[in-house]
Amino acid sequence: MIIKRIHIDNFGKFSNYDLDLDNEFTVLYGKNEDGKSTLMAFIQMMFYGYKGRVRDISRNPRKRYMPWNGQEMKGFIEFEALGANYRLERSFGLSNTTDKISAWNLDKGEQVNLPRSKDPGQVYFQMDADAFDKSVFIGQSGSIICDEEGSGEITNRLLNLVTTGKEDISHKKVEQRLQVAQEAMVSRSKSKGTLVDQRNKLAQLQSQKYVAEQDELDKAAILDKINHMAVERNSLEQEKKQLEESIRIFDLLNEKSAYEEALKQKTILTNLIITQKQRKAELLREGIVLDQTYLANTDKLINDLERLERSEREANSELDNAEISRASLLETKIQAIPAGTVDSLKAQQKSSHELQLRMNARQEEIDRVEAFLALEKELNDLRSELQELNREYGLADQNAKAQADINREQNGAIALSRDLLRKSRQHTTDIQRDIYGTEASLAGFKTAKQSLTETYEGRIEYTREGLAEASKPKEVQVETVAGKVIGAPLVVAVLIMGASIALGITVDPLLYLLALVAIIPLFRALRPAPPRLIRKTQIDNQLIEQLTEKLEQQQDEYATKLTQAQEEITKSQQALDSLKALFEQATAKDKETESAIELKSLSVKAAENDYNEQLRQRERTATLKESLEKQIAIKTDKQKEFQVLTETNSEAPVRPTELNETLEHLRYEQKDDEIAKNQIKSTLVANIEELGAVDLDQLYELDRAWHLHNEKLKNQHETVEKSLSKVKQISEQHNSVYKDLLETVSYFKQVSDKQSAQDALDLLRGLLIDVEHSEIAIKTYSEKQSNLEKSHSADELKIQVNKLQHDIDQLAPEGLPQSIDEKQLEAVRANISVLRATIAEQGEQIASQEASMREKYRQKKNISQIENEIEQVRAILAKQEDDYAALLEASKVLEESFAELQKNFGPLVNDKTAEIFSHLTDGKYDKVKVSRNFDIMIEDSEDNRLREWSFLSSGTVDQAYLSLRMAIAELVTAEHESLPLLLDDVFSQYDDERALHGLKFMAQYRFTKNPPLQILLFTCHLRIRHWAENELTDVQVKTIV
Amino acid sequence: MRHIKILHCADLHLGSELSDIPIRAQERKQELLRTFRKIVTICNDENVDLLLIAGDLFEGSNIDPQTVQSVKDYLHELDHTITVIAPGNHDYVSIDSPLADDDWPEQTIVLGDGPQRAIFADRGFAIYGAGFRSTYVDQPLLPQLPEADLDLINICVLHGDLVSEGGTSRYNPVTERQLAASGYDYVALGHIHKRSPVYKVSQTSYAYPGCPDGRGFDELDEKGVYIGTVGKHNVDLTFRNICSRMYLAVEADISDCSSEPEIVRTIISRLEELYGSEYKNNYYKIILLGSVSENFTLPLQTIQDNLNERLYFAKLIDNTRIAIDLEEVATENSLKGIFVRKMMERIEEQTANDNLPGANQLTKALEWGLRAFESEVQLIDY
What we know:
The structure holds two protein chains of two kinds.
Chain A: E1 2-11, E2 14-20, E3 25-29, H1 36-48, H2 61-64, E4 74-81, E5 84-91, E6 100-105, E7 110-112, H3 120-124, H4 129-136, E8 137-138, H5 142-145, H6 151-164, H7 171-185, H8 194-246, H9 248-282, E9 284-285, E10 288-289, H10 292-331, H11 341-470, E11 474-480, H12 487-506, H13 519-526, E12 532-538, H14 541-646, H15 656-690, H16 696-745, H17 754-783, H18 787-791, H19 794-811, H20 822-857, H21 863-920, E13 925-930, E14 936-940, E15 946-948, H22 954-972, E16 981-984, H23 992-1005, E17 1015-1019, H24 1022-1030, E18 1035-1039
Parallel strand pairs in A: 3-17, 3-18, 8-16, 16-17
Antiparallel strand pairs in A: 1-2, 1-4, 4-5, 5-6, 6-7, 9-10, 11-12, 13-14, 14-15
Chain B: E1 3-9, H1 25-45, E2 50-53, H2 65-76, E3 82-85, E4 108-110, E5 116-120, E6 125-129, E7 153-159, E8 161-162, E9 173-174, H3 176-182, E10 186-190, E11 199-201, E12 204-207, E13 224-231, E14 234-241, E15 247-253, H4 260-275, E16 283-289, E17 291-292, H5 300-310, E18 313-318, E19 321-322, H6 326-330, H7 335-352, H8 356-374
Parallel strand pairs in B: 1-2, 2-3, 3-4, 6-7, 7-10, 8-9, 10-12, 15-16, 16-18, 17-19
Antiparallel strand pairs in B: 1-13, 5-6, 11-12, 13-14
Helix pairs in contact in B: 1-2, 4-5, 7-8
């Protein structure tokens, strides 16, 4: 296959680009960014498109090579393949399916139908995109060598390429994938996996089925047992039925007797009820029921009547006793005290007592007045003393104030003197400061004068030296004007002019033109000449004059300024002397003032001491005065207390003179009262003795005894009256109750007295007891009623008796059977009861068996259900077994294939790689061993030692890589038509020698194929281009622009 | 001539656990019960004289009591129809069987006590039949049944396995000779889940109606009952589809698809084309066929999930092949080339020996081997 033309409408940076190619070794040179990679990508994309959907632009060529001009991505490639010329056109869409692809057979001029499922590359290169990428398209090894996985990875990648056709998928990977699938079905331990699960499931189901079969047998057995029990139960039921029939007639007779008895009882009860009704009707009078209540009421009336009779007797007895007691009291004699005597004596004793109280009060008042008068006297003494002290205090205070005035005046004078002294001192200090200032000014003036002298003397000296120097003669350069340059140039110009004229005349008129040459020297001759410098000796008078004038000026200025300075010094000195004199005067005055102040201060201190002593005296007087005032206050308070007490008797203030009169008056009254008291006491004693008593207390006792007797007599009269009243009241009540009793009893029977009433009531009581007894009998009969009596009326009972008699007649038309005794009958009944219990027990057993069976098998699947599941599992299992066998077969064949590959392909790779490698290394390494495990070893021809290739230099590794890639490409495409070899700067990592050698090898290598291979080497290295152009023949060089 | 109207159904297997459709199992159980209700409704609406249930009404004795109660309740609703239930190998009469209950409606006859006959002289027919009393019934029941009453229309209900003459079965073997000798006018059979036509031998007609609603992908397409009239020596029965949903196996060629949405579209349009507007309501097992690019790993789970969003139920089986030219690959000097070459040699050898299963297994091995070159091997989830 030969690529003949590449046309790019729009692809990446290319637009309307054409590249024509021949079946040659073509070096396609382009700098970085010229589009080398774009061109290679275009070739690959044209044949294979891009199936990925990677978003990363750098990894997705559809995005990476979007036309820069924004136009549709498209182009075509023309090539020769399979004996014909084709053009493959492609417009790129979003994916391979949306790409528009068309192929044309250019020889026939018709369109070729490409299969939809195949890429054009698969049709024309006869390999898929991966194989193309890794065989026909050989890149730089550097990109792989520099891979982070290291050079060891290259071995693996190449191994993969050889074995699986893809660098990234190894034989081991394929095997592993099959292994993973197998292990998903059957794990290595053979205990897990979908197939194992299914096998286990089948085994479990078969086991379940066995259990289900056993269950079914068990169920059948239990069912038989239950059926057997049911049969037995039926048999017992029959037996029971026969026994029940045999005792049926006896049961009927018994039943009939029961009905007859019930009928009899029912008749008795009915009669009792009728009789009772009649009795009750008789005891009903004028709407009043003569029952127990009625009887209780009449009994109560009789009880009340008897109680009243008892009360009446008791009241009469009480009346008799009261009358006897009253007669006894009337007979007793007691001494009487005249009325009012005791009260009169009591009044006398009371007035004597009141007189004594008044005398006591008066005596207290006399005592208080006497105390007040004594206090008044003490108070007057104290006031006189206080008055004396007040006078003393006033005198001391006056002296102290006068002394204070004097002291204040003297202190004022001292303060004034001190102020004057401070001011005077300030003035002295000012003078001293002026002295310092004047001294400083004087020193400054003196320094200024010294500086002035030095300055001006220096200047004057310098000016004098300048003047002396100016007076000396000096050599100087003078510039002069030189006029026009005429000399030599003019001569030359003339000579040239002359020669041109002469030659024009003699030789050729054209030579007159030489005269033009003369213009140059003539021009030089006629231009102005440059100025000249000349030297001469002279005295600068002007300078002398200037300097002389300056000297004079300086001397005048110096004299003036010196005079001014001296004047200022003199002035300063005078001022200084004056200030010093003033300072001395001021200092003397200050000392004098200080002495005077000191003297005055001593005098003031003595006066202050006196003043302080006077103050202390005044203070002591004040203390005494205060003490006296407190005493006066205390006594005054006591006196006020007295006044307060007396104020109740008199509103006017108490005066001592009045008090003395009062005291006298009180003492008289006291004496009068004493006499009166003694008279009353004598009268009282005489009266008591006259009434026969020793003292007043005994007289009181006699009076109290007389009054008590009178009181008792009065009470006894009242008691007699009350007893009379009570007897009368009871008698009235008795009559009323008696009347009620007779009336009440008359409802039952007419009576005239209490006894006849009681007899009538006893008769009624007897009647009521009969009624009660009948009631109890009815109740007893009612309670004792049998169920038959309760549920049947008498008529019904009669009907039932007749019916039973009829049944009995039916059962025994020929008369009753021979009766069996009760014992035998009971035995039959017991037998029936046992049978009934047995039947019930068997029924329960059957129900229990059925229930337990239902419970036991409730959740269990039956055989058919399990068989269905087994069927399903078997169907899946068969498929899975088939799948598993297929996987095992795939692994087995893969291993066999790999073994064959190792056997056949390995040596071919060895030989081919060794051949190419030997050429590339110029015979240095002529043997490459690719082991059965595809470990690559290289033998050095110099020492015949095998080395693993990854230990060689990087340049050698590159060569080995290229050798191996080319060998593989050759082998992979061995069955195909020769395909172009596209090399992507494969020598970029080589040194110059190796690169040149590699280039030469490629040029030769293409001729090892028939027809020769088309090789396209893309490079960005100038050295490759240079060698291709200069060192090799039969190599085309094209530049990618 | 007098006729009676019958509805013949069998093998409802109510209460089944449905392992094929785990996500829909519960709903499906309810649907099966609703299908039975539909049968009862038809009987009422169309005045059917006899409802014949020829065995396996229930999946087993272990089903939930609510299902049994529902069946009893539905049968109670029948006004005119007499129901005859012949217990089968799944619901044979045993002490724990729901058919052994004593509270079945009065108009329901459960043939649980050996060979039986029930005569309905006033309605002009007699019923014959016998139920299974264990899983296996090795001795044919049909010859044990009472003789036909020549004055009545004789209808027999049996659960049994139709076998050829001299054949055996553990599930009540029935032969044509027995059928012919029975003299019954119609023998309503059950046990086989696939419907048979109505056959006639001598004077006796017989048929299997199949199950009335599928329970898995082994019970495909339309399902239903036989309904029609039976007269003396003649029947007029037609099959009526009453299934709630169909189980369907559909093959879809996805050779031209290169993406998951494209595959889903292809499948949906295929189903629409086959089953019309109601296509969404069925259970589908979709077998993917055709060839796909070796670079395209089928996202089976995604496709299945996507289909299940659009269909009631779908399950995928991947039977696609890798789209490569085996002849061409076989010429490659690579591991893949050698592998293909060797595999093809073996397949040819098996084919030449007429060992089709062997050849198919090797074809599968070749396919999986090739897939392993491209991606992980995806096993089929049956």
